Amino acid sequence: MSLMLNLVLLVFLLVMAIAVLKTKHLFAMAMLFGLYSLLVAGLFVVLDAPDVAFTEAAVGTGISTVLMLVTLASIKDGHEAVSSTKRKIGPLIICLVMGGLLIFGTHDIAKLGEIHSPPNDQVAAYYITQGQAETGVPNLVTAVLASYRGFDTLGEVTVVLTAGIGVLLLLGQRRKIHVKKRGQTHDDQ
Amino acid sequence: MMTNDLILRVVTKWLSPIIILFALYVQFHGDYSPGGGFQAGVIFSTAILLYALTYGLDAALKVIPETALRVAASFGVLLYGGVGVVSMLLGGNFLNYSVLADTPLAGQHIGIIVIELGVGITVAAVMILLFFTFSRRVDPE
């Protein structure tokens, strides 16, 4: 059952990724990207990580799709992506080398669910055996995120706040900056 | 950014409170079930987003003014850091919740709930702020 689910989800994921690459319409791209996130969320559920799936579904499918659509709505011209037909060899080589390195790197990752891998043997085993007794929280993910790794979470919240401040500083002013149309000179502004 | 569709308007009116209620459930039940401050904040912001998409930005700004959002975004981080400072003042390490109450377990419980609340407030406020800032640049036409 799990294998079937994984297979269906992964095949759809691949189809979605290729569709995002192939489509030239930015609106369709945004919607497909939301669907891609939803499929990833489904995969996380199959992998028994409901907390991560929750985040992926809410952020990836919900918020970021809406933000992309709003961004598209605020751009008047340019709903079509312009791509040159000229083939470039440099980016292809970089992609191939990078992909090769990543695949090479996966050989050192412990197998999924491997009990005696270093992270499962030491720190995870401690959380599982002692976590509930020390924090009193049944959901171990919350215990780890909020208590054991409180510093990390503080950092994450600060990152969210910093991102918000950055966007406000860049786009927050009332005066609207008009993006120049192609072919116009600076004198028009 | 605004629609006159009756069905959308009615559905939004019914759906928004339910989404907010669900966000609060995810926020405060995160100790026992999947979820937590981050997810709750995002879900809360989707309720406001839905409202803004259906009723327009001005109506949403009446519900939550932007100044309040800016204050809330900073307040969440302050709340989180504040828990750390309080636990330091009570004799523990930074963010060691065990000293917050008489027993370590009760202290952990208080600490986790308060910092998750801080996370939720900041995330919700920043997400809504992002949306407001982006959608202000959309031409009304």
Determine and state the CATH class of the domain at 1-81 in chain A: Mainly Alpha
Instruction: Calculate the terminal CA-CA distance of chain B, rounded to whole Å.
Output: 10 Å
Using the CA coordinates, give the radius of gyration of chain B: 18 Å
Shape of chain B: elongated
Structural class of chain A: mainly alpha
Q: Main beta sheet of chain A: strand number and arrangement?
A: none
Could you please describe the fold and organization of this structure?
The complex is a heterodimer of chains A (189) and B (141). Chain A has 189 residues and is mostly helical. Chain A has helices at 2-22, 26-46, 50-74, 89-106, 118-121, 123-135, 140-148, 150-171. Among the domains of chain A are: 1-81, Four Helix Bundle (Hemerythrin (Met), subunit A); 139-174. In chain A, helix 2 packs antiparallel against helix 3 (50-74) and helix 6 (123-135) crosses helix 7 (140-148). The mean pLDDT of chain A is 84. Chain B is mainly α and 141 residues long. Chain B has one domain. Chain B is built from five helices and no strands. In chain B, helix 1 (6-28) runs antiparallel to helix 2, helix 2 (37-55) runs parallel beside helix 5 (104-135) and helix 4 (66-89) packs antiparallel against helix 5. The longest helix of chain B has 32 residues, at 104-135. The radius of gyration of chain B is 18 Å and the shape is elongated.
